[in-house]
Amino acid sequence: MKVHNFNAGPSVLPNEVLYKASKALIDFEGSGMSILEIGHRTAPFIAVMEEARSLVKELMQLDDDFEVLYLQGGATMQFMQVPMNLLDNSGTAAYVDTGVWSNKAIKEAKLFGYVDVVASSKESNYNHIPKQFTIPPQASYLHITTNNTIYGTQWQMTPVTDVPLIADMSSDIMSRSMDFNKYSLIYAGAQKNMGAAGATMVAIRKSMLGKVTRKIPSILDYKNHIENGSMLNTPPVFAVYISMLTLRWLKEQGGVSAIEQLNDKKAALLYDEIDHNPLFRGTVVKEDRSKMNACFVMDKPEMEEEFLKFCKKEDIVGIKGHRLSGGFRVSMYNALPYESVEVMVEAMKYFSLKKA
Amino acid sequence: MKVHNFNAGPSVLPNEVLYKASKALIDFEGSGMSILEIGHRTAPFIAVMEEARSLVKELMQLDDDFEVLYLQGGATMQFMQVPMNLLDNSGTAAYVDTGVWSNKAIKEAKLFGYVDVVASSKESNYNHIPKQFTIPPQASYLHITTNNTIYGTQWQMTPVTDVPLIADMSSDIMSRSMDFNKYSLIYAGAQKNMGAAGATMVAIRKSMLGKVTRKIPSILDYKNHIENGSMLNTPPVFAVYISMLTLRWLKEQGGVSAIEQLNDKKAALLYDEIDHNPLFRGTVVKEDRSKMNACFVMDKPEMEEEFLKFCKKEDIVGIKGHRLSGGFRVSMYNALPYESVEVMVEAMKYFSLKKA
């Protein structure tokens, strides 16, 4: 029996991925070894790594200038690795502040150059995405966080700019069709839509490299990872394998545009209930609502604990909101079945009737 | 059917660990979720992380000044993270060069301060561990690589010094009794004796911190990881879980001193054959031989390919030597059964008789 898993990440994965991985843990493709026991420089693992990298390019339709890497350390490592590689001491980087994760990225970038925070929605507790901002033309790049897991906002369009565009897409990567080629660097922790914790995907245009003068430690230099086929040192073998299986699954579902339709349906079902159920209220400006993480509260906050308990009995897991936004957060990543959202909505309806 | 897995790492793991993990991939402790699907800030995972950290302290008998962290990026990340945290721009660090991995550590340290390579066995192709060296008394630390996977050498004693001692123990951690408290920082990629690829264990004395003036990115600052209970950001959940299971298994075996006895027996059996079989010859000075990785060649190199093929038929895997040392490398980590070494030795005997 599986629960309805609305965790914000790590979160639900496709059953096919879990069953296949469970078998590979005992015997990987008839090798007499577990996937954990094979050498990372052997042909079977190199094939896994190459399939994962090429599935990213295929599913995101990235052009030839892009290289795809599987690194370690999560988006938090990228917060410092991006400016270390791309922002010179005398340079400027533009960042849009849309919440906790943008803020962390901004903090790390300041160690490497001048950071121009061109817009922020902080004053309204990050309940929307800033629309008006001016990017300094000399900026080395503009950094955005496409989906804000904690506050439940999401960029609905790609900013138009002449400077290279960089995005933390950890919590909405491959959940919707976008022209990913408008970006120069995209990074994402794998543990939401791309697999499990322990791997970070970085897609970077080779033309972005070689522009800073500082000396970069080997393990933090994108160039080294590219030259070594994302195997500069022992990669997180199992996490890459899980990502490869998850991307294969996504391709079998019809790819990004097909999963987007499902994600649209899931989000529509939930937000419709939030908007029509008198007990609940969304916390985010409608036009900027995230289809991955729906944040909402109850008009009577004293009922929230009771609703949480009620949901727990219905095998609904992971809906408590982040302490910074309160209430509830229902995460609906690619692998979350439509049926789980139906169960969630039924729970909201039933609880509301009970209280009427 | 399992093969005899002599891979240098990732390598063989205990069957109990693999079976338990395989089940947890489908349902983790009756949660209705896979271990890959649980939130890392939930009680069940915090318990895993804390058990792993405390098992390290218990098995290594570390004193209270030590903090144990599970980080990402492998030993290669530590090559730069150690000097970034502990070597000031104006400071000196002493390194002993015993092979490829020491060299990589030295290269990264040079980005942060002055590096004094106090000894090297490079001129004899790293076939021994240097015994005579002088450590500058003002050095911030002395760094050694306790076991050299590529060349098959191992430090048989801990250097006596007044400066803080730091060791890369990736390939022999917890394989033998040592006074680990003589060290100030110990790091190890988990994928040999402590689990699977994707987690790096760092045991550090708190008293080592706060001595450098440079600004350290958040994710690279040991202090941040300590303050956050090794959960500064999403940890590599599954890799930590596998490490916890592997350490539990080690404890059930009787801990480090018990596994040392088994490792001694395995190494004695193999080296005895190397020394008595006329076809084979060890490449390392006897007193510095590694009990984890035995390196040897054939007097008639043209036979090596044939022997490799013969071994393959016997389900012997992973014995081809690193290109830098040639011949064969037989890795015998904690989880390698004694029986596998018996099979290896039988193959050497049989091949030798066939050729006589």
What would a concise description of this structure say?
The structure is a homodimer of 356-residue chains. Chain A is α/β, with parallel strands linked by helices and 356 residues long. Helices cover 35% and strands 17% of the residues of chain A.
How would you describe this protein?
The structure is a homodimer of 356-residue chains. With 356 residues, chain A is α/β, with parallel strands linked by helices. The first copy, chain A, has nine helices and 14 strands. Chain A has helices spanning 15-26, 43-60, 74-86, 100-109, 222-227, 237-252, 255-276, 304-313, 338-355; strands spanning 4-5, 66-71, 92-97, 114-120, 141-145, 147-148, 153-154, 165-168, 185-189, 200-205, 280-282, 293-298, 316-317, 328-331. The first copy, chain A, is globular. The relative contact order of chain A is 0.17. Chains A and B meet through α1, α3, α4 and α6 of A and α1, α3, α4 and α6 of B.
Name the descriptors.
homodimer, 356 residues, Aspartate Aminotransferase, domain 2, Aspartate Aminotransferase, domain 1, 2 domains, three-stranded antiparallel sheet, 14 strands, 17% strand, globular, Pser_aminoTfrase (chains A, B), aminotransferase (chains A, B), amino-acid biosynthesis (chains A, B)
Number of helices of chain A: 9
The radius of gyration computed from the alpha-carbon positions of chain A, rounded to a whole number of angstroms, is 21 Å
Helix content of chain A: 25-40%
Low-confidence stretches of chain A: none
Widest sheet, order of strands of chain A: 2-10-9-8-5-3-4
Classify the fold: give the CATH topology of the largest domain in chain A: Aspartate Aminotransferase, domain 2
The CATH homology group name of the largest domain in chain A: Type I PLP-dependent aspartate aminotransferase-like (Major domain)
Shape of chain A: globular
Query: CATH first level of the largest domain in chain A: which class?
Result: Alpha Beta
Oligomeric state of the chains present here: homodimer
Biggest interface, chains and residue tallies = A-B, 63 and 63 residues
Mean pLDDT of chain A: 97
- How many beta strands in the DSSP annotation of chain A? 14
The major sheet of chain A is characterized as: 7 strands, mixed
Distance between the termini of chain A: 32 Å
Helix/strand-derived category of chain A reads: alpha/beta
Strand percentage of chain A, roughly?
A: 15-25%
User: In the CATH classification, which architecture of the largest domain in chain A applies?
Assistant: 3-Layer(aba) Sandwich
Number of domains of chain A: 2
Order of helices and strands of chain A: EHHEHEHEEEEEEEHHHEEHEEH
